[in-house]
Amino acid sequence: MRYVCPICGYIYDEGAEGVPFDALPDSWSCPLCGAPKLMFEPEAAPAPVAAAAAAPADLALDEDMRQLSAGALSALCSNLARGCEKQYKAEEAALFAQIADFFAAAAPRQTGVSLEELSALLREDLDAGYPALRAAAAAEGDRGALRVCVWGEKVTNMLYALLGRYQREGEAFLQNTQVWVCTVCGFIYIGDAPPDICPVCKVPAWKFDKIEGRRPA
């Protein structure tokens, strides 16, 4: 039997490894991206993805879909900056980054949000948001949106797994290690050094930024 990591695609082959997957300790994680054992899926029986109906072309948009918050605009412009950077358009990337910083400064700070609420939001994205986005992109034949959906879903899966581990282990989870973020796709890696290649978007280690100024334990 073979088991597949949904984040980076690593395959655990019981025949090659000589150890049944179920016999691995619960603390075992993907050797490439660090995804926990519980996220692995049998290769022969991947988890089904619920299909979502495409929205009618004449469907009126809700008001909250017409107007974005300052935080959402900051995230949007930041992503556009990353996209321009990847296309070697330095001037455009710098301009989008400036706009992103402007909206980030204008966005109200969120307080009182619990880890449980954040976990629930990530779970909602995985269960409903991404399936709906994937169906809409497929209906429109938008290959770019489909690619973004693939990356985004993998990163969200990893965020959900890391948050769950932090809830179980607390600050001990981050002691004597570093937090790294891929500047291309947003993948987060916990370790002394970034991975040689991003498990999601395959860029080299130098594309990772180390998160500084963490709250001390």
UniProtKB/TrEMBL annotation:
Q: For this UniProt record, give its keywords in alphabetical order, as a comma-separated list.
A: Electron transport, Iron, Metal-binding, Transport
| Keyword Iron among record annotations | yes
- Per its record, what are the GO molecular function terms? iron ion binding
Task: Tell me which domain of life the UniProt entry assigns to the organism this sequence originates from.
Answer: Bacteria
- In Pfam terms, one family for this protein is RUBY_RBDX
Entry annotated with the keyword Disulfide bond = no
Which co-factors does it depend on? Fe(3+)
What are the residue boundaries of the Rubredoxin-like domain, all occurrences included? Answer: 2-43, 177-211
Q: Which Gene3D superfamilies match?
A: 2.20.28.10
Which InterPro entries does the entry link to? Answer: Rubredoxin-like_dom, Rubredoxin_dom, Rubredoxin_Fe_BS, RUBY_RBDX
Which PANTHER family does this chain map to? RUBREDOXIN-LIKE SUPERFAMILY PROTEIN
Q: What is this protein called?
A: Rubredoxin
Q: Which organism is it from?
A: Candidatus Faecalibacterium faecipullorum
